[in-house]
Amino acid sequence: MISSRPTGWSAAEAATALPANGWVEEEVEFHTLDSACSIVLGYGRQVKALMPAEMRDAVRAEAQTMCPLYDESCT
């Protein structure tokens, strides 16, 4: 399951169709954990992996390994 923040919606659409926090939970099927991570990471901060925990942890680990590529202060 992922949570996403749709982009490109008009203010009127967002006001009537989205929850107050602007995030929509969706259940999505992926073929492999690797493909799930790649797809979720491809959406950047517009998508958050919620479950299963294995996918959420894999996305987090991959994002942490990328951080030093862009910011030397990352550990």
Describe the structure concisely.
This protein is of the alpha+beta class.
Describe this structure as you would to a colleague:
- Strands 2-1-3 form a three-stranded antiparallel sheet.
- Helix 2 packs across helix 3.
- The chain is 47% helix and 12% strand.
- It contains three helices and three strands.
- The two termini are 28 Å apart.
- The longest helix has 18 residues, at 53-70.
- The chain has 75 residues and is α+β, with helices and mostly antiparallel strands.
Can you give the mean pLDDT? 78
* Main sheet: strands, sense, barrel: 3 strands, antiparallel
Low-confidence stretches: none
Count up the helices. Answer: 3
Helix content: 40-55%
**H/E element string?**
EHEHEH
Total number of strands: 3
Shape: globular
Give the strand order of the largest sheet, numbering strands 1, 2, ... along the chain: 2-1-3
In terms of structural class, how would the helical and strand content be classed?
A: alpha+beta
Radius of gyration: 14 Å
Question: What share of residues are in beta strands?
Answer: 5-15%
Q: End-to-end span in angstroms?
A: 28 Å
Give the key terms:
75 residues, alpha+beta, three-stranded antiparallel beta sheet, single chain, 3 strands
Topology (elements, then pairings):
Blueprint: E1 2-4, H1 11-17, E2 24-26, H2 33-42, E3 47-49, H3 53-70
Antiparallel strand pairs: 1-2, 1-3
Helix pairs in contact: 2-3
